[in-house]
Amino acid sequence: MKCALVTGASGGIGSAIAKRLAQDGFYVVVHAHQNLVKAEQVVDDILAKGGRAQALAFDVTDRQACALALQALTEQHPVQVLVNNAGIHDDAVFPGMREDQWDRVVAVSLNGFFNVTQPLTLPMIRKRWGRIINISSVAALMGNRGQVNYSAAKGALHAASKSLALELASRGITVNAVAPGIIETDMIEGHFDADLIKKLVPMQRAGRAQEVADLVGFLASEQAAYISGQVISINGAMI
Fold this sequence. Notes:
Layout: E1 3-6, H1 12-23, E2 27-32, H2 36-48, E3 52-57, H3 63-76, E4 79-84, H4 99-127, E5 130-135, H5 139-142, H6 148-168, E6 173-180, H7 194-200, H8 209-219, E7 231-234
Parallel strand pairs: 1-2, 1-4, 2-3, 4-5, 5-6, 6-7
Helix pairs in contact: 1-2, 1-8, 3-4, 4-6
């Protein structure tokens, strides 16, 4: 049984991805930082449906904590599917953006990608099979007011995904980015009402977390072995 690690899996999109991968037969490590209780609830849901999973808490911005947690994990369950889903918003117009707002967002989305992915690449190379899927955002493709920090971090993740895909292509490892648009999660509450969504999204609705999870499930499968180095949008024709 292959093992999949989903970072930020206590949130709406992450939990849907974790459940989909468990449904597809992976042993799923449901990661959280501060919300371990919610991650454990996701694990309980997976176990109740006959899947296998465990919860794991660490701070993706803490390089040493990542290394220790991943070393302990891979001794028991070598990770062959990694979904880098952890990310935060801390929005502000750029002239008024504080240094800590920039640093925190970049630290989670971009530094977190390095801290989690880099220790896991060599074991994947040894197995000559792996899937690295980085969850990005439509903001990285078209920009968004008040999200210069978030757009910058996710845009850098696109470039990193393409470069890493080239490095790992001959080793049976694919690397792709998934860029969701407006998705029904707690994160969008208070930001997008129904009228605004209809104006912004040609399909006139928000996407569902399960739809993102289904795309990730496909990219993690054997059927997606020839897809690598791509940024795949799922946004209802926004762009």
